[in-house]
Amino acid sequence: MVTVTVCVGSSCFLRGAHAVIQEFERLIAEQVPGQVEIKGSFCMEHCTDGVTIKIGDDIFSAVKPADVPGLFEKYVMPKLVQG
Ligand code: FES
Q1: For residue 81, pLDDT beyond 90
Q2: CATH of the domain at 25
Q3: What atom in ligand 1 is closest to the CA of residue 46?
């Protein structure tokens, strides 16, 4: 199980955290249902131009919904393959 943590602190929330979560949910449902958990988190202190997320223990900031498919393929899928 891979955990994707999306910051829903006020700055990230205003910058579209909800849309980022929806995009992750869509990809998970399409490609790997039930294998990825999405969690919300308080401010991760990387408030930048976009939303801060964590995939496993790796932090990515300034994430926009359009970035999600690339992150998913590059960082989520390999973790699932490794188990
Ligand atoms: S509100 Fe998300 S990193 Fe600060």
Answers
A1: no
A2: 3.40.30.10
A3: 3
Q: Are 35 and 83 spatial neighbours (Cβ–Cβ below 8 Å)? A: no
| Ligand 1 midpoint to CA 43 (Å) | 4
List, for residues 38-70, the tens digit of each pLDDT value.
999 999 999 988 899 999 999 999 999 999 999
Say what the pTM is.
Answer: 0.93
Burial (CB count within 10 angstroms: exposed 0-12, middle 13-18, buried 19+), residue 22: middle
Number of domains in the chain: 1
Q: Residue 28 sits in which domain range?
A: 2-82
